[in-house]
């Protein structure tokens, strides 16, 4: 079915539309992502694959499949280049920390979060041999 740009069509496929939709022109949704998203995602994946202590190859593949950095690039397509990269690193780090918390009790998780936050606010210096510490501190 080909429509002229001035024609309208049912948006939902239903026989009747809500009144506010009647007469709206047909549009094609074109998603917008950050213009450097491919490079940013590649860089973020490479960084964490090199430095994060994934327990096995399956966990590494699951991490890449999660594509957390791309989600952020799609959510904020007009972010400044110098900000989106750090935001993607932080967002990815938070998902990885969340995976660690899954195996902890509430009290253990609270203590772990407090430890992670102590690096974010500069209250502690990181042990450069522990990735979650120095990555959190550096981001």
Description:
- The chain has helices at residues 37-51, 57-66, 68-75, 81-101, 106-120, 131-138.
- The protein is built from six helices and no strands.
- It has one domain (37-138).
- The chain is mostly helical.
- Helix 3 (68-75) crosses helix 4 (81-101).
- This is Aristolochene synthase in complex with 12,13 Difluorofarnesyl diphosphate.
What is the helix tally? 6
Outline = elongated
Number of strands: 0
Global Rg: 22 Å
- As a percent range, the share of helical residues equals 55-70%
β-sheet strand percentage? under 5%
Main β sheet profile: none
Tell me the span between the first and last alpha carbons: 51 Å
Structural class: mainly alpha
Q: What oligomeric arrangement do these chains adopt? A: single chain
How many structural domains does the protein architecture include?
1
Overall pLDDT score:
84
- Give the ordered list of helices and strands: HHHHHH
Low-pLDDT parts are 1-14
InterPro entries: Isoprenoid_synthase_dom_sf
Organism: Mycena venus
Protein name: Aristolochene synthase in complex with 12,13 Difluorofarnesyl diphosphate
